[in-house]
Amino acid sequence: MHYRQRSVLFAAPGLAIGAVAVGAAGGLTLSDFERPEMLIASLFVGVIIGMAVAELLSMTRRQAWRIRNRSRWEKYSTGASIVAAPWLATSGPKPPKLLDAADQLRIVMSSDFTIQPLLNKSEARVFKELARIVIRCNPDWHVMAQVSLGEILRSKDAEAYSCINSKRVDLLLVDGNCQPRHAIEYQGGAHYQNAAAARDAVKKEAMRRAGIGYNEVVAGKTTPSELRRLVEKLVDKLDVNQP
Q1: Dist CA 243 CA 234 (whole Å)
Q2: What digits encode the pLDDT tens for the residues 138-175?
Q3: Is residue 130 located within the same domain as residue 203?
Q4: Fewer CB within 10 Å: C terminus or N terminus of the chain?
Q5: Burial level of 169, CB count in 10 A (0-12/13-18/19+)?
Q6: How far apart are alpha carbons 207 and 183 in whole angstroms?
Q7: pTM (2 d.p.)
Q8: Is position 100 within any domain?
Q9: Residue 220 belongs to domain spanning
Q10: Is residue 7 part of a domain?
Q11: Which residues are bridge partners to 173 per DSSP?
């Protein structure tokens, strides 16, 4: 709207210029402008000239403003001081790059590694006591620690398998044929922080559907005698008559 007003204002003096131009080209006099077609022609030429003058002055002002604010304009044009506002679309995080074996080897060779204990001290005590009781009940059975569910469970549903693939059980009882039979989760003092209970529910349901037992040993509550009775109930008795 502002541009239109400026164009009309600059067109006013252009009317006179247009009239003079038309008269000079055709040898016309002032009396000729009393004719409607000549008046329309002069108005049209005046509007065109006025708009051209307005655009020229606008470009001149913009150029002068850029010269006066050159340093700030260059900073804005490079985007150095522009901060993405909440209403501006921002690009999301880029997906991690898939590394091939060569890239993985290069990264590993440039990094340092240290030993990470498989079990903490409390878990290790339960593991040793559990292993001792299991061997006494049936030497063919074994206790495994920190077993990945992706290694002992299978599912044709890829989405369901992805839900349990990276989860682990603290302790796993396997029989003489290395078949998973019972999982034992050690619940320490800080075990139920954050979403630990929800993760345990996922593991428990997946193993229930596969036919693997799920049991819990609670720190400070489960006594050695209770652990012994639990193992005696879970482990198959050794058949003394078997050759």
Answers
A1: 23
A2: 999 999 999 999 999 999 999 999 999 999 999 999 99
A3: yes
A4: C
A5: buried
A6: 8
A7: 0.58
A8: no
A9: 121-234
A10: yes
A11: 143, 182
